[in-house]
Amino acid sequence: MKIETERLLLRDFVLDDWPRIQEYQSDPLYLRYYQWTERTPDAVQKFIGRMIEFQQQEPRIKYQLAVVLKSSNLLIGNCGVRMDAAGAVEADMGYELDPKHWNHGYATEAALAMLDFGFQHFGVHRIWAGCVVENTGSARVLEKLGMKLEGRFREHRYYKNRWWDSYIYAILDYEWEVHKQSRPVYWKEVEG
Please, what's the largest Cα pairwise distance for the chain? Predict the structure, then answer.
């Protein structure tokens, strides 16, 4: 599976992606909002293994794709949309980027494409996403996607010796159609 946007190529993961993933997932800025304090080669290889397992599903209900800069062919993160079961009425989405590539609109560009793909491919009524409250950059991306803040889960995750609050955002299929009118989404599925 490959999706092309204006500046990005979103593609299925391959085993050889793990060193690049470990590189950016080891950045302290990346680790700030995750439960991990470090990312080992074994952990990252298991992560890549799960992404490759998604590719074998029939029908495929999880698309978590590597985000690659078209200009340099550098893998800078991942973005995806996932259902819990075939025929589900909702899906969730998530994304992450190498902190060196934050604040360039790449997360929004990738997430817009995956959100549109999710509604078109899955035909779901609702797509949701969550982020920790302190991750204001991620919350801004979700708002740029047209998602609405639905709630705040207070102290529902515990890691790094503290409790974390999380936001839940979502957008409905008809809201997405209206949002696309004000913010056109360019993406296309490509061969190879």
Answer: 46
| pLDDT band, very low/low/confident/very high, at 53 (cuts 50, 70, 90) | very high
End-to-end CA distance of the chain: 8
Angle, helices 41-55 vs 18-25, to 10°: value is 120
| Residue-wise pLDDT tens digits, 6-46 | 999 999 999 999 999 999 999 999 999 999 999 999 999 99
Give helix 106-122 / helix 173-182 axis angle, nearest 10°.
Answer: 130
Instruction: Give the list of residues 6+ apart from residue 187 with CB closer than 8 angstroms, or none.
Output: 3, 4, 5, 112, 113, 116, 117
Domains by residue range for the chain, with CATH: 2-189 (3.40.630.30)
The answer to whether 30 touches 98, Cβ cutoff 8 Å, is yes
Strands (E), 70-116: 75-82, 90-97
Which helix H or strand E contains 1, and what residues bound it? none
